[in-house]
Predict the 3D structure of the following.
Amino acid sequence: MALQPPVILIHGITGSVLRDEYPLPPEAVWDPGVFGVEAFERIAVHPESPAPTPEKRLYEAQGPSRVTVSHGVRVIYGELIDLLRHDLSEKGEPPVPAHILAYDWRQDNRVNAAQLGEFIAEVIERTNLLPHYAGQCRAVDLVGHSMGGLVIATCLAAGRHMTRAGTSRVRRVVTLGTPFLGAVDALAKLATGESEIVGQSRHTEREIVRLTPAVYQLLPVYERAFFDTATQQPVNVYNVANWQESIVDSIAESMRRHATRAELRRVGPAGEAVRQGAASKLLETRLRSCRELHTLIDGMDPDRVLLEPGGWLPIVGIDEKTRFAAGLSTRTDPTTRRTRKEWDFLIADSDYGGSNNPWSFREARLRLGDGVVPLRGAVPKWMAKSRERVVCVAERDFGGLLGLEDALVRKCTSLHATLPLMSLTQRWVVSFLKGRRWGEVWGRPLPDVRATDWRPPVQGVGIKAD
């Protein structure tokens, strides 16, 4: 029997602990465990950092400091990692090597993808030193949660997982709740702060995330994600002129507070104009990074970048109240008489009260999601013709006894955040990587896929008809 490849788990945004290594000993500045540490002012990136490249990362605004990654958050990923290590191997065999790539989730995902490519090569080399692999390991399997799936897709689309001879080092991939086409919650965080995509749902964090490249790369790119509320026509989200002025204003204010260039320190109308221009340019850069990332991912063919055809399993959460679109409105302040742009968010509710027509019900479910990622953003473009392979899970699939930490996480966060904790999801991951059903496994097709057409990539699984 062939040896099970080692596995790398790639966490979602905010899924790793960040620490400042400038103090001795280093201090945690981000650790969203049960009793979390969230020092937003210390993880904010500097608005004048060099443009990120795969070889260069952004730096912190508050210094002197050096914020680096410590480790993945165990409360979310520890159970899944343990399962992969001990249940992927066959009875009597040593544990399968399962690693977590702890990356700096603030950075441009192309930087994170380059790190993943290097880590894939390292894991293979380390695995080949184990006696029971004895140099036979040639590839890894990847599991990505949320933005971790985008890191995987970016890495594979850019070919960073390939050998010098052009051979893929990745066999199979499972993604959990990945916003392949984005999530409106990212815009909500940038515009109002009222989203849990980073930290808690509160407005005090919005100034920090407005400087964070990764959040912009989560913006939705599917059809009619943005529209003009007056004309109902689509809005080009990549055009800076279509954004709230308050976002540019807060970026300009960050530049004023952290300015290092003489022209940005100047006071008066001229200095303010310089700052506003620089802020608009920085916003344009962040939006361009989103467009470039999704252009790269959308053009990928999984069957060409993986060792095995049909080797990509997307698992998505469904039927939860989720933001699915945003309307741009122009409003006039009654006091100042100034007009300003603002985003309004459309939220699909799981309490369907419309027609009894089955297809109307399915249309309503297509506007839902996992509480963060709408279904419209969860299915990659390159699966448009194979939607019958997508596996859906729902809140009602949670079952069994949860530990204290798991129970606290489930109570305080969305289905999206807790997909790695769901026993059913974990069984799907193990089953797909084993190539056969492991334990009791069931699922649901996408709402617009008939039950008779559903073709999950594991044989013998049950189907839930809701």
Summary: The first strand starts at residue 7 and ends at 10. The chain has 16 helices and 15 strands.
